[in-house]
Amino acid sequence: MGTATEFTKAFSSLPNVYDSDAFKGAFASFSDFQGKFSEIAIASASMSTDVLLKGTKDALENVRTLTKARDRSNYAQAFLDFMQAQAKVAQDTAASLSEIMKGSGTEVSELATEAAQETTEVMTEVIEASVEVTEEAQDVVEKAEPEGDHKVKSTPV
Questions:
Q1: Number of folded domains in the chain?
Q2: How far, in Å, CA of 70 to CA of 59, rounded?
Q3: What is the pTM for the complete model shown?
Q4: Quick check: is 156 in a domain?
Q5: How confident is the model at residue 61 (pLDDT cuts 50, 70, 90)?
Q6: What are phi and psi of 151, to 5 degrees?
Q7: What is the domain extent for residue 123?
Q8: Mean local confidence (pLDDT), 3-31
Q9: Is 1 part of a structural domain of the chain?
Q10: Nearest to residue 32, comparing CAs of 108, 105, 115?
């Protein structure tokens, strides 16, 4: 076995395993992706609100038209026109919301793909660094042990 000084010297030759710059970079990258995801969600919510507001205004205009005073014989036609107009409002609103969801889904999918690629690159770097540190640690241990003393010694119980 080596002395305490040899042991300390051996481990001081190992590279710093904790890389604060890498941690800061990963945090900044994570924050960047979170900001992009949030922007997509907020933009989608804003556009959806606009579509729903338009649908509400159109529906209220249809009610206004329905409730106008008219001759008794025209109420059936007015109600039929109202139902057709409401169906059109519902159809237009659903189509607009569908387009918003489709666009947002595409943006999120592209962003998720980008995040996955970046994560894969970072994990590859981490694995390579881990292998390097492991190899250096093995070299340090081999240098610290006296020749021929590589077996673990056990004492009889």
A1: 1
A2: 20
A3: 0.62
A4: no
A5: very high
A6: -90, 150
A7: 20-144
A8: 65
A9: no
A10: 115
Q: pLDDT at position 13, please?
A: 56
Cβ density class 38-71: b for 16+ within 10 Å, e for less: eebeeebeebbeebeeebeebbeebeeebeeeee
Which residue is it, tokens 């329905």?
A: 66
Q: Report the C-alpha gap between 23 and 30 in whole angstroms.
A: 10
pLDDT value of position 54 = 97
Helices marked H in the chain — which ranges?
Answer: 4-12, 20-66, 75-144
Q: Amino acid letter at 97?
A: L
In a domain, 99, yes or no: yes
Q: What percent of the chain has pLDDT over 90?
A: 44
Cβ atoms of 75 and 65 within 8 Å: the answer is no
- Which 3 state secondary structure label does DSSP give 2? coil
What are the Cα distances from residue 134, in Å, to 17, 57, 72, 130? Answer: 10, 67, 91, 6
pLDDT given for residue 33 in this prediction: 87
Amino acid at 52: L
Q: Is residue 151 part of a domain?
A: no
Per-residue pLDDT reduced to its tens digit, 27-53 = 778 888 899 999 999 999 999 999 999
